Amino acid sequence: MPRAFTPKVVTGNALLEGDVIYLTETGDWTRDLAEAEVLSDEADAQLRLLDAQSRPGEIVGAYLADVTPGPRGPEPAHFREAFRRKGPSNYAHGKQEHRPGAEL
Amino acid sequence: MYRYTDFDAGFVAERNRQFRAQVARRIDGSLTEDEFKPLRLMNGLYLQLHAYMLRVAIPYGTLDSRQMRQLAQIAERWDKGYGHFTTRQNIQFNWPVLGDVPDILDALAEVEMHAIQTSGNTIRNVTADHFAGAAADEVADPRPVAELIRQWSTDHPEFQFLPRKFKIAVTGSPADRAVTAAHDIGLRIVRAADGGIAYQVLVGGGLGRTPMIGKVLHDALPEADLLPYLEAIVSVWNLLGRRDNKYKARIKITVHEHGIDEIRRLVEARFAETRAAFSGIDQVMLAGIRAAFAPPAFRDAPVDAYHAARDADPVFRAWTDSNLAAHRAEGYAIVQVSLKAHGATPGDASALQMRVLADVAERYGHDELRISHEQNVVLPHVHLSDLPALHAILRAHGLGTANIGKVSDIIACPGMDYCALATARSIPVAQEIALRFDALKIEHQVGDLKIKISGCINACGHHHVGHIGILGLDRAGVENYQITLGGDQGPDAALGQRTGPGFSADEIVPAVERIVETYLAERAGAEEDFLATFRRIGMAPFKAALYDAPDKEARADAA
Ligand code: SF4
User: Fold this and answer.
1) Contact at 8 Å (CB) between B476 and B493?
2) ipTM of the complex
3) Can you list the positions of beta strands (E) in B342-435?
4) Which domains does chain B have, with CATH numbers?
5) Which chain A positions have a beta carbon within 8 Å of B49's beta carbon?
6) Confidence category of residue A63, pLDDT binned at 50, 70, 90
7) Which of B157, B321, B355, B425 has a CA 20 to 30 Å removed from the CA of B348?
């Protein structure tokens, strides 16, 4: 039996600002994980990753990150992705500046 | 201080011009990331978790007020109003955007600074004792020779593609405040038999995945032989170093695999060749550099005001007790300004604080500032009579914390709040430990205790040589903190020993508290510091306190 595929999102850093971005269903970039496209099929995920990697003028270091689908969109499966989504914990910088009160 | 020559200025300007064009080509799509990455790293530009990060070298930790003001200006104009001082005497800006970096580099060049060789497999920023030129116990100022090494190593054609990065530290004092034993090459200036100076050369030290204490390669190298000898060492390693495996590529592994005697033999053989190629021009240059580091004109003035202030103001007295060090000149002190206010991020300074530091350096400190590897700022030359006024200004700007060398003077690397390589966070652990001991009000009772925290095995937070070292790891998707005890960064450097299994983020602060409680209960007296007590009683009592304490169940409940 094939191993169950953990759902993924395509993520990386924006070329110009360096901040964390995610790929959406329409092929745009979002700064908000909740708006990212959740990929639950492995072959599909690889194709979407290739698509992202073919846009080097927009994203740096694209990769697939594990997520857990939830009622408010995908949630990070690992704490590193939770920090990438939120920003640093010592100052309300990065994404926290734009979304006051955003929860980890 | 050393001033750039026309050659230095021209070199940096040309590099900046090239990098500006490279950034433009990356943005317009002519360069791929694979092509661009080595170019940006050569200029100190990393891509971290949330943003780009620019690492700027502060050679041997020395700055003047003009440079500090420019760093403040950069922080405000192109970053988020602060900078982070690191254990390698660099400053990191955590939030630049790619298109601004060429302007930042030009702004740095205006004050004779750059980010060249702060990354990549090259010889990195040369670090030195942060009390250089001021310490009472100093044999000689290490900065002239550090500057000579900087000039020799910058863009050295043979050493631009080394097996791995390469770090050199220099101390001019037997107290070794530069952690020389944890560097690829550590240089210790010693008195030679003829009364002059010589260099004890350590090689193969390093922390990280496989921590090693440096071994003595040469006991007393004459100064004139220093550069050819360094060139011989790096050259031998450049050929022998394990390029097949990046975890085995550092010189510490080369020394370990071949043995110090074989390395010495190879270095001596190579030295015979490199020595012949040095014409002596390096010594002429060194003499010129030395003149640039002539000590300031110290003044002779009464110190009654200082003693009166100490008697009258307990806050001032506490600060002078913990933050001053002995100066070589009569009536002077070395001031350490703590960047470790309780609950603050270790090593961070706001643009305003940087300007205040620049102002007080100009007004009271012969225009000199140093950055310590302990992530504090040093005013190396302050007359005692100026200390009350200085302290008042520092206090007004959150820079008056009296905790140098104490439990809250914690080294912490950026960890997973910024660093892309991290396995766990380190900043919040440092913040919580500092706040906890501040609340307990036992910091001064505890005395000298160095806690050092790294957010991954690369050990930028020097945890192996902390009296208490903390290493953040990822254990099955949860942050976990391993503790080592008994590390020592000084002249008799030692690596800490692991206590046992690690602790969760919730447990790590109580665990440190139990270690400190054990020390207080076991110490022979207030004069016996943590390290001495640990050496006398060993690991067992600490282990017992950590792992078989009676409140274990309570801890399990809390977890
Ligand atoms: S020790 Fe690890 S987490 Fe900390 S700064 Fe170094 S590489 Fe990053």
Assistant:
1) no
2) 0.93
3) 348-350, 369-371, 377-383, 411-412
4) 6-110 (3.90.480.20), 142-291 (3.30.413.10), 304-396 (3.90.480.20), 411-558 (3.30.413.10)
5) 20, 83-84
6) very high
7) B321
